[in-house]
Amino acid sequence: MTELEALYTQIITCESCGLCKTRTQAVPGEGAENAEIMFVGEGPGFHEDQQGRPFIGAAGKFLDELLGSISLTRSDVYICNVVKCRPPGNRDPVPEEVDACRPFLLRQIELVDPKLIVTLGRFSLSWFFPRDAIGKVRGSLRQMGGRHYYHVYHPAAALHNGNLRQVINDDFANIPRVLETIREDTPVVAAAPAPTEQGRLF
User: For residue range 52-86, what is the model confidence (pLDDT) as tens digits?
Assistant: First the structure.
């Protein structure tokens, strides 16, 4: 058993917040354990909760299309979420739930050690950069704490607002260039360090 698989066991049996009482099953994450790119979403939805896999509903199908558009598949990348259990009714996760899952995501980042973390949507962005708004920073590459971050709208946003579909497509199309910039160690914009208290998202 790898260290990442051992972490999955901890996630699946976690009872650190109330979501353990309403979930069907936890959704740890999946993908290449040495992936160059890690995608971080918000949390599981209905289908993810049923099957224990991230991004397998309608938003997941769009994510698969987006990956294909840049010649990638799920097996090439790593996909996970800020919270590992579905909030009832697909409501937004509350700060206490986000904090309960914080050690898991930190450990996933440590073990996968990606060259690039792609934040999908406002909750993922807020986890790393609490003061920022997705509409202002989407499509930008930034560096903080020795890691590189690239910000994109959540694929689900295109399902609710068709105008965002092309925006998301365009931002994904830039990912290969962004990754090449990182590989070449080209300087990028440095973001301000996140505050110590990162629990509040609203």
Answer: 999 999 999 999 999 999 999 999 999 999 999 99
Q: Please give the DSSP secondary-structure letter assigned to residue 87.
A: P
Nearest residue to 61 via CA among 184, 158, 185: 158
> Is the pTM here over 0.85, yes or no?
yes
Q: DSSP label at 33?
A: T
- Cα separation of 96 and 172, whole Å? 31
- Domain-wise residue ranges, the chain: 3-14+29-185
Nearest Cα neighbor of 118 from 149, 140, 139 is: 149
Measure the N-to-C terminal CA separation of the chain; round to a whole number of Å: 38
DSSP 114: -
CATH of domain 3-14+29-185: 3.40.470.10
